[in-house]
Amino acid sequence: MAAVPxxxxxxxxxxxxYKVTHHLQYPPGTTTVYSYFECRGGKFPEVxxxxxxxxxxxxxVGPVISREKIxxxxxxxxxxFGQDCFNEEGWNYILKxxxxxxxxxxxxxxxxxxxxxxNVLFSVENTDPKVPWITNWFETLLVQVWxxxxxxxxxxxxxxxxxxxxxxxxxxxxxxxFKLHDFGFRGSTSVESAAIGGxxxxxxxxxxxxxxxxxxxxxxYGCKMAGNSIPAAEHSTITSWGKSGEAHAFxxxxxxxxxxxxxxxxxxxxxxxxxxxxxxxxxRDLVIKRGKGGNTLVIRPDSGxxxxxxxxxxxxxxxxxGVVKNSKGFKQLPPYIRVIQGDxxxxxxxxxxxxxxxxxxxxxxxxxxxxxxxxxxxxDRDTQKCAYKCSYAVIDGKPTNVxxxxxxxxxxxxxxxxxxxxxxxxxxxxxxxxxxxxxxxVLMPVFENGKLLREFTFEEIRARAEISILKQSTNKSK
Length: 478
Fold this sequence. Notes:
The radius of gyration is 26 Å and the shape is elongated. Helix 7 (191-202) crosses helix 8 (211-221). A hairpin with a 5-residue loop joins strand 9 and strand 10. The protein is built from 17 helices and 18 strands. A 7-stranded antiparallel beta sheet has the order 14-13-1-5-3-17-18. The protein has a 5-stranded parallel beta sheet with strand order 6-12-11-8-7. It has helices at residues 52-60, 67-81, 88-98, 134-137, 139-142, 146-169, 191-202, 211-221, 235-239, 246-256, 271-282, 284-291, 306-321, 347-359, 373-376, 458-465, 468-477, and strands at 30-39, 46-48, 104-108, 114-116, 120-126, 180-182, 261-265, 296-300, 324-325, 331-332, 337-341, 367-371, 386-395, 398-401, 420-424, 427-431, 444-448, 451-452. It is of the alpha+beta class.
């Protein structure tokens, strides 16, 4: 049977089913519905706010409602519910009176801002009293900011760990922006999730193989080139030479890419033999010769228990190529040879690897990490307990504070009234019931009636999200 055509960018179809019926459920006389988004807790005590601009520009900027889309949605929902409960009149009103532009107002904290959990991050309210239901129609879409926000938060937390160990065991932090490389494209649930998740990681780091993330940062945040990569081997390009030809495959990598960094996966058969006999003996002179031009070979183990494998690889390489001790007394391989661990990398395992290296007097400068599933996929909305709740309404002209307080889980208690996010003396706090000081409120208008009011560049987002130690060093240099 032929597929029935449907418009995949129809904003009337990016909501949960039950919301189609909610226009009939608010109290009579309701003219305003005001809702907010927050992280109610979770794995990390603070979050990087990122990704709202992407959602707004992709779905809500401009005249996004048309007569054709309304007709399509009406037919679709009639089939879906088995009855006609779609608010055709309301959407026709928006088309006629607002030219198809969504009559909501959004105030948000600037993207890239680091905010402790349990604080408001953005608020949404209708601007036309005849369509109060529209505020929560778009909850489903807007809550999806949880994903880029959580990826950026997780990525930044790993940056803080790596920075800590570099401070303790290396001479400087110069290599930090490239210490966690995004390997997550193939493990993502879709190209779109790889794009926004990949961009979220690039808020903190400069290394990626997730091209979709770079494209996203370019299209939605105006960044010409957000991330970099290097020539690198995969198992097929090594194993296609055969087991007896592994050394020829390695040599080919050095000869085909004589300049700059090149990464070579080396565990296809025996990582210990590859490091000791092939890299450390057969190709040793070529590696050293290549390194004299300031070029670097990066050896990639890709199996085994990460901490055990990394320190053993470093030890084998040190016997072949030697080591020096830096100013802090930690061992470093020559600058022309490094290691990248790209298997089993997560927030937890990075700490374990770096701690083991430190105990054995290896500098964190020797290693770079590549992360896939744990970086872009091993998270969900509950990682930071993201929620969107109504906190204020106007009913029959009367302002009403709205909240929930379930006796079975007080952690889900919601905030009351209009909210502001105040920043004072280096701390954020959410003020409820409209009692905030506008002069201290950092929530700013970012969207109103189909128009993007404030556009954040990737450069300024990165600057806001920078970890404290680097912000301090930047300020000192100024």
